[in-house]
């Protein structure tokens, strides 16, 4: 009761409404995620199963999104492709965020040679444009989504590192942190109590942008046929495959395009306008 | 200034090192017998036999040990000897030089086009924040930013090339072949640079010195020319540096989409063919191009903003 009134008093004193863009972004993303993960439960069709009688058939009641050029269910393929993109993007963002943020704090905390060594490491990965690095890693381990995952994570971690490093550097000299350290509190307490509340909202923005970058990179590599191999459904690859049949079945080509668009748009909206 | 350029030089060294190590791992990690792969790339998959593979192996010295190979690799790299394409047999440096010309042509056209589209619209929007132009521009740029380059390219092909038939979808040699790929890249770049210009212009237009310029009797056009443009151009030019990542990445995808015979196209095809020397050469040149462009942006900012020269 007591805590309830207190928290409501706090929210009343400083109204903290989510911006409209962010709400729209979260809603669209949630719908796409639901579509991707519920479809196989409601509609258990194998995304690689062919029925050649239905090649490029238009959407109908029995097959809401129609068939592709090999008579495969577009609904099943689109959902599978979205699961692949979402899963890979989520994994890479997570793998990039945790070490990136921790190394950023470490660099700012220790300073000196640790800071310099970690910054040089960051520069190494920043020197090449991200897609180039991912492309070269996929050349090292062709035909595997793991190369994509490792490559994208290696590109994304730097952003977290730079952000947390810059924030921690200013925070660590603040009177509040100095007081905590003088009182004998350890790093875990200071990170949880002083650093995390400042860093967390920024992490969300960077993570949303990172996920958008990852999804675009996966699609771009699929599109130039370097990433995932057929018959695995992948958004970029589906576009390459369906492009020659644009005249007969424009609906088929438009589906992966709309899927990528909605995903990236929702993530951009979540990220907000500040971190363009 | 020398410190900034020194950093870029350091970055260039890092590019060479990263590309060198990555391609070296690549050549070691490739599955299967490399001699057979290369022989297949040269003579076609149906014509490969043990003799052909062995001929390739002795010719290219594929049977030496790991450390010797790495040492050889770097001594070649330092002397900028990029080796010979294992598929076409031509020197990589000549191939890359040839392709680089096409890529630079495309990239220049894209940047110029994006500067014609983006910042003017952004400045117009920033002069009246919240107006019709501002809202419309926000909508268009958010849409464009949510579409990867190749989707923009695809839509342009569908609408302008196959739909209306006004421009060729792919090809090279005629001036109109340049339009679609350059426009694809330019739209992506302009989507961001227009927002940067808009925010910068809104900031400048709301500043006291801008209001004073108006109060002392300058016309709208005069105050924009005398007090607005130079202040707005620093963030735009700075942001151009960030956008070069987009440009380089876009070149890879857009060249492949439009079959433009540049470096990105060559890189993707070298990856298909496992042509490691060409992968190394193209990746190296693209990485170095990226560093060089950033160094040029540093210089441009230095020239535009006299405050940096004092510091």
Protein architecture, described:
The complex is a heterodimer of chains A (276) and B (311). With 276 residues, chain A is an all-alpha fold. Chain A has helices spanning 2-13, 20-42, 74-110, 112-127, 130-140, 145-172, 175-182, 187-223, 235-242, 250-271. Chain A has one domain: MetI-like (MetI-like fold). In chain A, helix 2 packs across helix 3, helix 3 (74-110) packs antiparallel against helix 8 (187-223) and helix 8 (187-223) packs antiparallel against helix 10. The radius of gyration of chain A is 23 Å and the shape is elongated. Chain A starts with a helix and ends in a 5-residue tail after the last helix. Chain B has 311 residues and is mostly helical. Chain B folds into two domains: 2-78; 92-310, MetI-like fold. Helix content of chain B is 80%, strand content 0%. Chain B is elongated and about 85 Å long. The A-B interface holds A 123-133, 135-142, 216, 219-220, 223-226, 236, 239, 243, 246-247, 257, 260-261, 264-265, 268-269, 276 and B 10-12, 14-15, 17-19, 22-23, 25-26, 29-31, 142-143, 145-151, 154-155, 158, 162, 192, 195-196, 244-245, 248-249, 252-253, 256-257, 267-268, 271-272, 274, 279, 283, 286-287, 290-291. Chain B: One of its GO terms (cellular component) is plasma membrane. Chain B: Residues 100-297 form the ABC transmembrane type-1 domain. Chain B: Keywords: Cell membrane, Membrane, Transmembrane, Transmembrane helix, Transport.
How is the secondary structure organized here?
The complex is a heterodimer of chains A (276) and B (311).
Chain A: H1 2-13, H2 20-42, H3 74-110, H4 112-127, H5 130-140, H6 145-172, H7 175-182, H8 187-223, H9 235-242, H10 250-271
Chain B: H1 2-29, H2 34-43, H3 50-60, H4 66-78, H5 92-127, H6 132-145, H7 149-163, H8 175-205, H9 208-215, H10 220-258, H11 263-273, H12 276-304, H13 306-310
């Amino acid at each position: 009761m007591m805590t309830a009134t207190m928290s409501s008093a706090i929210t009343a004193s400083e109204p903290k409404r989510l911006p409209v863009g962010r709400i729209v972004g979260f809603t669209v993303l949630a719908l796409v995620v639901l579509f991707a993960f519920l479809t196989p439960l409601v509609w258990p069709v194998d995304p690689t199963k062919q029925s050649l009688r239905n090649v490029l058939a238009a959407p109908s009641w029995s097959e809401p999104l129609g068939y592709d050029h090999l008579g495969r269910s577009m609904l099943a393929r689109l959902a599978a492709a979205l699961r692949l993109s979402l899963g890979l993007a989520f994994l890479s963002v997570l793998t990039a965020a945790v070490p990136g943020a921790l190394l950023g704090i470490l660099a700012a905390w220790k300073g000196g040679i640790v800071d310099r060594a970690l910054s040089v490491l960051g520069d190494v990965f920043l020197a090449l444009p991200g897609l180039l690095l991912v492309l070269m890693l996929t050349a090292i381990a062709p035909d595997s989504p793991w190369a994509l995952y490792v490559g994208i994570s290696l590109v994304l971690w730097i952003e977290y590192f730079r952000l947390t490093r810059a924030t921690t550097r200013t925070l660590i000299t603040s009177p509040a942190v100095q007081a905590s350290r003088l009182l004998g509190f350890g790093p875990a307490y200071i990170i949880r109590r002083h650093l995390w509340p400042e860093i967390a909202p920024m992490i969300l923005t960077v993570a949303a942008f990172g996920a958008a970058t990852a999804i675009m990179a996966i699609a771009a590599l699929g599109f130039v046929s370097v990433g995932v191999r057929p018959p695995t459904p992948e958004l970029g690859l589906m576009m390459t495959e369906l492009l020659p049949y644009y005249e007969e079945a424009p609906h088929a080509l438009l589906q992966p395009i709309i899927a990528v668009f909605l995903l990236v748009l929702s993530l951009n909206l979540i990220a907000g306008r500040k971190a363009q | 200034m020398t410190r900034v350029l020194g950093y870029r030089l350091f970055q260039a060294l890092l590019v060479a090192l990263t590309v060198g190590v990555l391609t070296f791992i690549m050549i070691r990690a490739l599955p299967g017998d490399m001699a057979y792969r290369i022989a297949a790339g040269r003579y076609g998959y149906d014509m490969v036999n043990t003799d052909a593979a062995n001929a390739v192996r002795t010719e290219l010295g594929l049977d030496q040990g790991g450390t010797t190979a790495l040492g050889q690799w770097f001594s070649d790299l330092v002397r900028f000897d990029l080796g010979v394409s294992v598929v076409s047999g031509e020197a990589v440096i000549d191939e890359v030089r040839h392709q680089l010309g096409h890529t630079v042509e495309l990239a220049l056209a894209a940047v110029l086009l994006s500067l014609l589209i983006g910042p003017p619209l952004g400045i117009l929007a920033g002069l009246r924040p919240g107006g019709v132009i501002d809202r419309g521009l926000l909508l268009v740029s958010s849409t464009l930013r949510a579409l990867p380059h190749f989707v923009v390219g695809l839509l342009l092909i569908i609408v302008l090339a196959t739909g209306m038939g006004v421009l060729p979808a792919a090809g090279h040699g005629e001036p109109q072949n340049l339009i679609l790929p350059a426009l694809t890249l330019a739209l992506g770049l302009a989507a961001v640079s227009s927002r940067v210009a808009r925010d910068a212009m809104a900031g400048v237009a709301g500043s006291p010195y801008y209001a004073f310029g108006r109060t002392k009797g300058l016309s709208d056009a005069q105050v924009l020319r005398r007090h607005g443009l130079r202040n707005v151009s620093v963030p735009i030019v700075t942001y151009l540096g960030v956008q070069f990542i987009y440009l380089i990445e876009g070149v890879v995808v857009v060249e492949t989409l439009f079959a433009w015979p540049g470096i990105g196209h060559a890189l993707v095809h070298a990856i298909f063919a496992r042509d490691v020397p060409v992968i190394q050469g193209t990746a190296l040149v693209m990485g170095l191009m990226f560093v060089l462009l950033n160094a040029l942006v540093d210089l441009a900012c230095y020239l535009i903003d006299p405050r940096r020269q004092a510091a």
